[in-house]
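Please fill in the sequence for the structure shown.

STRUCTURE ENCODING:
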């Protein structure tokens, strides 16, 4: 097979020999590493929730610590699940693409881990050596540079996904059609183009002011793109369900008309919900000199700061949350329960791996998005603390959109081929 840069050849898979070849030790190794993995994931999730739920921890030190915990979860998830899967399936195979992807994410999260540890060291240096100037603009400059980098990666990464899909005829399928729409939404969702330019402007001008009209506009687009992201993830789960559970009827069921209709309905539902929520905010009256303990105008915080009666707003807000967040989440769970059931009926381990790999990227993004979002708002509801979700909101509003293009492309041969063709065509 032709290599990436020329006529050199490479094999399609490798063997991971693991820690030990002794069969009787495999259950012990499996249990040991599964336990360590679960402790690492849930321990770091608890730390993130603790930081987000306590206003006393809303400081730069704990902000960086919560991001470090998230990176640690990602770092360990790069290798351990694959190792556990190989032990469980009595297989030692990893594909060439899987190996390259593993190397990429190991280097990515290891480098990010080192960078965050360095930033945390600088934070402690300022706090101890310059305590009177701890909130100095220097720290704001670091935060500004960090989020500007994340913003640029998110925008250009997702733009590359869109360009690769539109320029390659082989990717004109339902799965990539939905993925290109998701990438478009991720450029504008939540903390990216809806909020980050305003935050960066405020840091650079040393101002914290946002006008009432800008705040309402920000709320409108935040809700619009957040709900649209959820609905598109649900549609993609249905697409994977049809592809795996009903492969012979896939092209008939997921025809272009249905795909277009599903995206159109997602937009209509999102626009109507966002419009109704924003109009409900307009009926509220606010006291002067309102301070929002967040880095953007978030609906729940705005309602809590109102001086007028908010009962109707809370009813509409929670009803929409149950219907447009809980409903799609239940649909995703149903789709994947049927997908897992179908995969388990496949006889060969290689066939199971191939089937699972087609939806692994989507499942990863769904898990990141829902786990962080639910963690933020459940902790906020439990503590009734206006500050509680500010730090942890970064997880699903910054990290998830930034990782989407990497997760969806690096484990996908067709996407990598399209990206290579795009770079060659554009002489990049």
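FILLED IN BY: designer on duty
SEQUENCE:
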């Amino acid at each position: 097979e032709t290599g990436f840069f020329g006529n050199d050849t490479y094999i399609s898979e490798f063997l991971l020999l693991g820690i030990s070849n002794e069969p009787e030790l495999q259950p012990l190794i499996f249990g040991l590493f599964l336990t360590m993995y679960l402790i690492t994931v849930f321990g770091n999730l608890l730390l993130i929730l603790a930081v987000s739920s306590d206003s006393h921890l809303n400081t730069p030190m704990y902000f960086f610590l919560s991001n470090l915990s998230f990176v640690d979860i990602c770092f360990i998830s790069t290798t351990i699940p694959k190792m556990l899967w190989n032990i469980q399936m009595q297989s030692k195979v990893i594909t060439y693409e899987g190996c390259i992807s593993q190397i990429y994410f190991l280097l990515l999260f290891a480098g990010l881990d080192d960078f965050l540890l360095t930033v945390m060291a600088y934070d402690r240096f300022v706090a101890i050596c310059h305590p009177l100037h701890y909130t100095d603009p220097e720290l704001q400059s670091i935060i500004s540079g960090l989020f500007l980098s994340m913003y640029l990666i998110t925008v250009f990464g997702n733009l590359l996904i869109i360009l690769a899909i539109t320029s390659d005829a082989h990717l004109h399928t339902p799965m990539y059609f939905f993925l290109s729409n998701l990438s478009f939404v991720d450029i504008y969702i939540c903390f990216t183009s809806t909020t980050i330019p305003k935050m960066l402007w405020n840091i650079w001008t040393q101002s914290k002011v946002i006008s009432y009209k800008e705040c309402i506009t920000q709320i409108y687009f935040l809700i619009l793109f957040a709900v649209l992201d959820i609905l598109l993830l649900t549609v993609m789960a249905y697409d994977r369900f049809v592809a795996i559970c009903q492969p012979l009827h896939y092209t008939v069921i997921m025809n272009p008309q249905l795909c277009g209709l599903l995206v159109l309905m997602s937009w209509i539902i999102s626009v109507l919900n966002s419009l109704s929520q924003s109009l409900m905010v307009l009926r509220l009256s606010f006291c002067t000199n309102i301070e929002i303990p967040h880095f953007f105008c978030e609906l729940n915080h705005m309602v809590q700061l109102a001086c007028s009666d908010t009962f109707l707003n809370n009813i509409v807000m929670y009803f929409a949350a149950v219907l447009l967040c809980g409903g799609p989440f239940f649909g995703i769970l149903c789709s994947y329960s049927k997908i897992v059931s179908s995969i388990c009926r496949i006889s060969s381990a290689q066939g199971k791996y191939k089937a699972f790999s087609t939806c692994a990227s989507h499942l990863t993004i769904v898990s990141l998005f829902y786990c962080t979002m639910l963690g933020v708002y459940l902790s906020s509801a439990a503590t009734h603390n206006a500050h509680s979700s500010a730090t942890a909101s970064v997880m699903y509003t910054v990290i998830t959109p930034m990782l989407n293009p990497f997760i969806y492309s690096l484990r996908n041969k067709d996407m990598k081929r399209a990206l290579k063709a795009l770079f060659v065509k554009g002489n990049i």
